[in-house]
Design goal:
globular; 2 domains; four-stranded antiparallel beta sheet; Rossmann fold; alpha/beta; about 30% helix; 17 strands; binds iron/sulfur cluster; Fumarate Reductase Iron-sulfur Protein, Chain B, domain 2; about 475 residues
Length: about 475
């Protein structure tokens, strides 16, 4: 039986037996990838990092002008319900849309001004989303916030303040944080992980958060640990950020419940499943939550937002956005108010260079190609990456040569070449039987494929179709 071509008897043999055989053969390759034995997961790739463009540039506080756009869906779950209408005056820090259900989050204005419209607008993912459009008066007149002492807050009050601040997973997922921090059995949570891996190439927003505002991360972690009496706080950072590791180690040296975990630099190390595997050796699949294996994982930006919401009573109103790539004149890291037009940030970097062919909301591995630069920065926006040359455009797809590199790279331990074949012929049943729903859409398989096969794209489309079918049922 060939290692990567499975015909006939494979189903009889059973997929899991087959999988065990394939992955036991790959184990040696993975071990050789980590000679120092640093914390990591199995699979993954080492793309060009591109972080040198912005990693040493401190945050610039950006003050946008003109129109600001606040989508009512900046999170997973029910859209928020607008609380304002055209002509209303609003202040910075004012709630303008209220959570539309348990899994939902409030939306706040980051500027003072007048509501111009409530209408569908384009967002970075390419979707049209109902949005509150505010004409910024440039005054930044703010509401009053109510600070609090952590020691005087009950666990319920801490969660309520996180919800009141509209905090969601700001590393990209957008899951409402108060829901994530309300597991069924809080006493069984052993690890609270602050995800500072930032494995996506080119992005340096978390890097700058750890260097420029590290105290807020420690404050936020203290707030989360107050919810979980039996947990240890782990600040997880890849070993390509030695200055962040040093800074955070210095800050937590007198905190008995906190430590820094150094991870091997590898994409997608920052994925929730991968970081849990790296730090604890525990594994979860797509049907499990981190809490099922005693873990809570939050991105550094989210943890910082938790500190603002709990201790200062301040809602989420800004995001660190890296504007980078060889397609922009002067790459920068901005602390930008939510609602800022991405095009304004690009202009503040000196604009795009001649011949730019691709602009991505996010990084090159997980981001979304943009066809219109006028989209708002939302709670989950981390970057805008601009390229003079689009390497993908030059790729010519050829036949699979059964080299197995996609299998070796896959962090979800599925067989990408097989799944893509099932997807291409619309075979839903085999796709699910071969664990297609375990794919985390990281893009590693397409990245390593010498035949330039669009594996991730095919698998992603199939997953969407199956998820939509499940929703309809
Ligand atoms: S995109 Fe999916 S199938 Fe491809 S490597 Fe990532 S997890 Fe595996
Ligand atoms: S990496 Fe590409 S060529 Fe190699 S087995 Fe996978 S799909 Fe085929």
């Amino acid at each position: 039986m060939s290692l990567f071509t499975f015909e006939g008897e494979e189903r009889a043999q059973g997929f899991s037996a087959l999988k065990d055989e394939v992955f036991s053969r790959l184990r040696t390759i993975w071990e050789n990838d980590n000679p120092e034995g640093l914390l990591t997961f199995v699979g993954g790739v080492h793309p060009y990092e591109g972080k040198e463009l912005t990693k040493d540039l401190p945050l610039e506080r950006f003050k946008p002008q003109g129109e600001m756009v606040f989508p009512v869906s900046q999170h997973i779950g029910a859209p928020a319900t607008p609380l304002v209408k055209k002509g209303d005056k609003v202040l910075r820090g004012q709630m303008i849309a209220e959570a539309g259900g348990f899994v939902s989050a409030h939306v706040f204005s980051s500027v003072s001004g007048t509501v111009k419209a409530v209408e569908p607008r384009l967002v970075p993912t390419g979707a049209m989303v109902n949005s509150i459009v505010i004409e910024n008066d440039g005054e930044y007149t703010e509401v009053e916030y109510t600070p609090a002492e952590l020691s005087e807050l009950s666990k319920e009050e801490i969660r309520a303040r996180i919800r009141a601040g509209g905090v969601v997973g700001m590393g990209g997922a957008g899951f409402p944080t108060d829901v994530k921090l309300s597991p069924k059995e809080p006493d069984k949570i052993e690890y609270v992980m602050v995800n500072g891996a930032e494995c996506e190439p080119y992005l340096t927003s978390d890097h700058r958060r750890m260097l420029d505002e590290p105290e807020a991360i420690v404050d936020g972690l203290r707030c989360i640990l107050a919810l979980f009496d039996n947990a240890q706080g782990c600040i997880c950072i890849e070993n390509n950020k030695p200055e962040c590791i040093e800074r955070m180690q210095e800050l937590v040296k007198d905190e008995p419940r906190m430590e820094v975990k150094v991870l091997l630099t590898k994409y997608p190390q920052g994925g929730e499943r991968n970081i849990i595997k790296a730090v604890t050796g525990r594994e979860i699949n797509s049907t499990m939550l981190p809490a099922d294996v005693g873990c809570v994982v939050d991105n550094v930006d989210t943890v910082s937002a938790i500190a603002d919401a709990v201790l200062r009573g301040k809602p989420v109103m800004s995001k660190i956005v890296t504007v980078t790539g060889n397609g922009v004149v002067s790459p920068k890291n901005f602390l930008a108010p939510t609602g800022t037009d991405m095009y304004e940030l690009i202009e503040a970097c000196g604009g795009l260079r001649d011949g730019v062919t691709k602009v991505i909301a996010g990084g090159p591995m997980m981001g979304f190609a943009m066809y219109d630069l006028h989209v708002p920065c939302t709670k989950t926006t981390a970057a805008c990456t601009c390229f003079v040359e689009d390497p993908v455009l030059k790729d010519v797809e050829t036949a699979c040569i059964n080299c197995g590199r996609c299998v070796e790279a896959c962090p979800s331990h599925v067989l990408p070449t097989r799944l893509a074949a099932f997807a291409d012929r619309g075979d839903l049943e085999s796709f699910q039987e071969f664990d297609g729903m375990e794919c985390c859409e990281c893009g590693c398989c397409s990245y390593v494929c010498p035949a330039k096969r669009q594996l991730t794209q095919s698998i992603k489309s199939m997953r969407r179709m199956i998820l939509n079918n499940r929703k309809k049922k």
